[in-house]
Specification:
Blueprint (H helix, E strand, L loop, with lengths): L2 H18 L28 H19 L6 H8 L7 H16 L30 E7 L1 H7 L4 E7 L2 E2 L1
Antiparallel strand pairs: 1-2, 2-3
Helix pairs in contact: 1-2, 1-4, 2-3, 2-4
């Protein structure tokens, strides 16, 4: 089963499920997630057990669609999958939005340019290999504070040649 068939069947299953709930997929959808939606900032009501089960199932279907070739939704599916531990109603609505997007954009294609760039790097300008040092950088960020307050909240610890600075 290719990605087109998988997505078509998945959308049909979602439509059937939503029909049973008295809901339907949105008709006009141009983006994978709702415009300016940030799942990490969602504070809607938590999903009940049935909705959590639906969320997990649909995320699994979307992940499989990515594996079969729908790389255009890869980032958004990963963002939504990060909330599987405690999905909220807004997260579930965003997943339905992804399926609406897939219904409207069922035959997406990726086009690659076969042109290869040429690089002119002079190897005598690079440092000697015996001067190279391994540098490990550990970054700890507080994503919510950075997005909410629009500031950086990162802590850095850099180790070079077994010394911290």
């Amino acid at each position: 089963m290719g990605s087109h068939t998988h997505v078509k069947e998945a959308v049909k299953n979602v439509e059937t499920h939503l029909e049973g709930l008295g809901l339907a997929l949105k008709k006009k959808v141009s983006t994978v997630l709702p415009h300016e939606y940030k799942p990490e900032l969602d504070i809607s009501k938590e999903c009940n057990e049935e909705e959590v089960s639906q969320y997990h199932q649909r995320i699994g279907v979307l992940r499989w669609a990515v594996e079969l070739g729908r790389v255009d939704i890869c980032t958004e599916v990963s963002m939504m999958a990060a909330h599987c531990a405690m999905p909220r109603k807004g997260h579930l609505d965003a997943v339905w939005h992804v399926f609406a997007y897939l219904k409207r954009h069922d035959k997406s294609k990726m086009v690659f340019d076969s042109w290869s760039p040429t690089f002119s790097v002079k190897t005598n300008k690079l440092p000697r290999p015996d001067c190279w040092r391994e540098i490990y950088l550990f970054v700890e960020t507080d994503q919510f504070i950075r997005i909410y307050k629009h500031c950086s909240a990162a802590s850095y610890c850099c180790c070079c040649c077994s010394r911290s600075f």
